[in-house]
Design brief:
Number of strands: 10
Oligomer: single chain
Number of domains: 2
Distance between the termini: 27 Å
Number of helices: 5
Strand content: 15-25%
Order of helices and strands: HEEEEEEEEHHHHEE
Shape: globular
Radius of gyration: 19 Å
CATH architecture of the largest domain: Orthogonal Bundle
Length: about 270
DNA sequence: AAAACTACCTGAGTGC
DNA sequence: TGCACTCAGGTAGTTT
């Protein structure tokens, strides 16, 4: 499931193949994604891709004029393949490049998106409300303590709120809370600043480790070369059937805000 | 104001 | 074998 590490892996994977390339042709086989594919994509033929970056779970593709904004949704992935490769099922969008290679976007569940803006993409209405990047210095204990203060919501829903901090989804929220020894259902306003500082480091460490492993593949996600992400083998609680690796207690699964949370009832308080 | 819930979607897995 | 059903989750928008 594409969270920050999967998006980062994808962005790094495509960058060497798309930066400096001219967009020769755009094919949109299915417009009905989370939002209809931006109509401007019909007019970007001939433009140059100058840079690729990431903000939260969005991939920004800066052109010589305008910016493409991609989101992988829940099942999106990107591949770089020879243009002549026959499209796979659910391969909705293809950017054919001057190199003879093509960027191919596949998304079975169509929760992804391709948007376009002529303005500063960070001011786009979907991006302007995003909180700090979890790997940046802005995300520190003072910030999180202030954000959590007086909140009665569970800490897990707080760190999954993209306005508080961006890029943390269900899997990495569960894993980070396990690393920090904090129960996902604990009320955010009832956690000390010291423990929040530990949680911040746990989030950073978890995300960085996942990026090193090429992300987590449960079903659809693939790296740009088609390989899965290998962080699945490092998961401590998410979807884990075995007892806790630290203390041997059975991992518990509870539903929180329509999402499954996994935690060790002994290690996490 | 904040928290909880809903809709969007397909494929994998389960049980009969 | 096949059908009906449940579950998975990112996030904008709606309701409580």
């Amino acid at each position: 499931m594409p969270e920050l590490p999967e998006v980062e892996t994808t962005m790094r994977g495509i960058a060497p193949y798309v930066c400096g390339q001219k967009i020769r042709r755009v094919i949109v086989r299915e417009h009905r994604l989370r939002w209809p594919v931006a109509k401007e994509t019909a007019e970007i033929q001939g433009r140059m891709i100058e840079a690729v970056s990431r903000r939260g779970k969005y991939i920004l593709m800066q052109l010589d004029r305008g910016t493409l904004i991609w989101h992988l949704g829940m099942s999106g992935s990107m591949r770089i393949l020879p243009t002549a490769t026959p499209p796979e099922k659910h391969e909705h969008i293809e950017l054919q490049l001057g190199s003879g290679l093509a960027l191919k976007f596949r998304d079975p569940r169509r929760f992804g998106a391709l948007l376009y803006t002529d303005m500063d993409p960070l001011q786009h209405r979907l991006l302007c409300q995003l909180g700090p990047e979890p790997l940046s210095q802005d995300f520190d204990a003072d910030y999180l303590y202030t954000a959590c203060k007086h909140k009665t919501a569970a800490i897990k829903s707080v760190i999954m709120d993209s306005r508080i901090v961006t890029g943390v989804g269900n899997i990495y929220a569960c894993e980070s809370l396990f690393s920090a020894g904090i129960k996902p259902t604990r009320k955010a306003g009832r956690i000390s600043k010291n423990r929040l500082a530990i949680l911040i480091e746990a989030i950073r460490d978890t995300l960085r480790a996942a990026i090193r492993h090429g992300g987590t593949t449960l079903q659809d996600f693939t790296q740009v070369d088609g390989n899965p992400g290998y962080f699945r083998h490092s998961l401590q609680v998410y979807g884990v059937k075995e007892p806790c690796s630290a203390c041997g207690t059975a991992i518990r699964q509870v539903v929180q805000g329509q999402r499954s949370s996994y935690f060790c009832p002994k290690c996490q308080t």
